[in-house]
Amino acid sequence: MEIYTAIQEIGDLVASEVYKGQNFQSYLKRKFSEKGSISQTEFDLIERLVKLFLQSLTDNEIYDLWKKTETGSESIYFNKFEPEINSTKSELGNELIDLYITGL
């Protein structure tokens, strides 16, 4: 899986949520374009959806996707080893949240 595909799948999860009576993804895009930020509550919901996405992946898929992120590729280059799966999930989750939000 490529990073772009992962972000699309996260976008699909976000779009499936209803927030304040609206499609959550549309709401986020409008709010972000108007204010340039989102609330902590909205961030927490995105984080929950990213964690849900990560639960759908196998450990090998998580490692492979993590290696394609900036953090993962740098870590492999400098450290020559993969961290344990929980650290990898956490780092990957943070990267995906950042990529999703900056893509709004």
Would you write up a description of this structure?
There is one protein chain. The chain has 6 helices and 2 strands. With 104 residues, the protein is mainly alpha-helical. The chain has a two-stranded antiparallel ribbon with strand order 1-2. Helix 3 packs across helix 6 and helix 4 packs across helix 6. The longest helix has 18 residues. It starts with a helix and ends with a helix. The mean pLDDT is 90.
Condensed summary:
This protein is mainly alpha-helical. The chain is elongated and about 45 Å long.
Question: How much strand?
Answer: under 5%
Low-pLDDT segments:
none
Category by helix and strand content: mainly alpha
State the end-to-end CA separation: 21 Å
Give the helix level as a range of percent: over 70%
Choose one word for the global shape.
Answer: elongated
Strand element count: 2
Count of separate DSSP helical elements: 6
Q: What does the largest sheet look like?
A: 2 strands, antiparallel
- Average of the residue pLDDT scores: 90
Strand order of the largest sheet: 1-2
Order of helices and strands: HEEHHHHH
Q: Taking Cα atoms only, what radius of gyration do you get, to the nearest Å?
A: 14 Å
